[in-house]
Amino acid sequence: MKKGIILGILAATLWGISGTFGHFLFQQKAINVEWLITIRLLISGICLLLFANFNNENLFAIWKNKKDSIQLIIFSIIGMLGVQYTYFAAIKHSNAATATVLQFIGPILIAVYLAIKYKKLPKPIEIIAIILAVAGTFLLVTHEKLNSLSISPLALFLGLASAVTLAIYSLQPKQLLTKYNAAVVIGWAMLIGGIVFSFVKFPWEIEGIWDWETALSVGFVVFLGTLVAFYSYLTATKIIGAQKTSLLSSAEPLVAVLLSVTWLKIPFETIDWIGSLCIISTIFLLSRRK
């Protein structure tokens, strides 16, 4: 239990730090967001598949089933690539703190989708969570000013798109994950997403200001923020279950906010803290459901 909790918190913390490093790379080192996504997915996908192969997993069994292979391609492009790109693009056009908090509207979208799918009205605790998420988003992006936004419309769109793709990422591969090893599914999804995005930005088209800070930040995003974080999260899910692990993931936006404020000196006002806490609190409310 302790191991599972530690791994869950580690994954969330690494993701939060990774988002902050992404903001640093985009704003201060002029690194291209599309290039970073391509490199991140390609390297992480290859490493995860090598890891799965080392553990004697069948890497190609998923391709022998036509239905499963189609589901994998859909997950790779819409789920994996979609959530990676929209999240980091939202960071580029706003900041790591705001983008990470907006992405955590995803669990609310999952609750709404499931309520519609099974034709059941949301339970009272889900309704409270939805109200908090809407209120938190309103405070975060408007600062209580109805006639203006505290972030650009593009940043808001990308942040909300990140939440939508996070919901798809969480729901769509459910059947695949019950049939195949998680490292195999995630590894192939990352590799396919990276190959597809290579046509948008070739991995050898390197831009920006390169020094030891850039190399360290890119290395963290690719290896610790992706490989170690995903492996820790999947292992934690296996040990303590998805419910507890998703609750621990609420550490991610908190880490992103604290680092953005203390390290990158991002202005985060009282109203931003209130809005963020409203959204993050929805994770705790939804996790109470069995």
Essential attributes:
290 residues, mainly alpha, 77% helix
Helix content percent band: over 70%
Spell the H/E element sequence: HHHHHHHHHHHHH
Let me know the average pLDDT: 85
From the spread of the alpha carbons, the general shape counts as globular
Largest sheet: none
Percentage of residues in DSSP E strands:
under 5%
Spans where pLDDT lies below 50 across 5 or more residues: none
Q: Rg, please?
A: 18 Å
Structural class call reads mainly alpha
Separation of the first and last Cα atoms: 19 Å
Query: How many distinct beta strands?
Result: 0
Please, how many helices? 13
Please tell me about this protein's structure.
The chain is an all-alpha fold and 290 residues long. The chain is 77% helix and 0% strand. α1 packs across α11 and α3 runs antiparallel to α4. It is globular. 48% of the residues are buried.
Short description:
The chain is mostly helical. It is 77% helix and 0% strand.
Topology:
Elements: H1 2-28, H2 33-54, H3 66-93, H4 96-103, H5 106-117, H6 124-142, H7 153-171, H8 174-179, H9 182-198, H10 212-240, H11 242-248, H12 251-262, H13 270-286
Helix pairs in contact: 1-10, 1-11, 1-12, 2-3, 2-9, 2-10, 3-4, 3-7, 3-9, 4-7, 4-12, 5-7, 6-13, 10-11
